[in-house]
Amino acid sequence: xxxxxxxxQMLEDxxxxxxxxxxNMMRSDCEQQGIDEETSLAKMNRLLDAMISADASYxxxxxxxxxxxxxxxxxxxxxxxxxxxxxxxxxxxxxxGALRMGECNACMKRIVAAPTAGACGVLPAVLLAYQRHxxxxxxxxxxxxxxxxxxxxxxxxxxxxxxxxxxxxxxxxSAAAMAAPALVQLMGGTPEQMAHAxxxxxKNLLGLVCDPVGGLVEVPCVKRNVIGSMDAVxxxxxxxxxxSSRVPPDQVxxxxxxxxxxxxHTLRETGKGGLAATPFGKKYQPKED
Length: 289
What we know:
The protein has 13 helices and no strands. The chain has 289 residues and is mainly alpha-helical.
């Protein structure tokens, strides 16, 4: 895709071309890779199919090699099917989907890094739940994935999507910032609303540390996928209601980069700070030679 350096640049390109953001992203993908639109669409279709397959592959009885992760997606589905949820069916389904995908990753199943393996549950959780509850066609989901990719590309270029570089705000935060405008796309929102949804999603998780217990992408990573999914839904709904980010989206992403750079190394995926440094977490620290 065209290496946009800012959200404002992407919006301006959209205004000049008159094309929807998803189509601009698809065309830029074709230009960068030297492929035609049919090939680009086929690749995005395979990514969507991989997300669907990964979700279907979940088994509640399976556990990760450490034993720390497994079964929670099944518990949430069972609770949802009981009909007494606090959040309602759609939100409960999103939560269950995020848990399922995070647990699939921990159990070494094939997932789609969106944008990373540790944050793989956010985007499919909101998209697939939206399809189940609101009847989106597959081509609509593919368009939403192009939108997510466009915003994710700018975050990667302007800040980071690496927990080791910017903390979990760069992983779960980035995933939420991709999923929020994707939802706005599905709901028929404007490019400006997509931009504000992205910004609000980032702001809501600004400063989130990366502190994996035992250095594994399991605790607290799996449950943070749930929080990222909720963040995306709330940011998208605020944007659709006409609520905007007071801080311009590009400045929000710049702040994310600065916050990530200021985090101590113990809170950037080293497994030596935060929850990893609790008495419980220390039991799972790998022994040093």
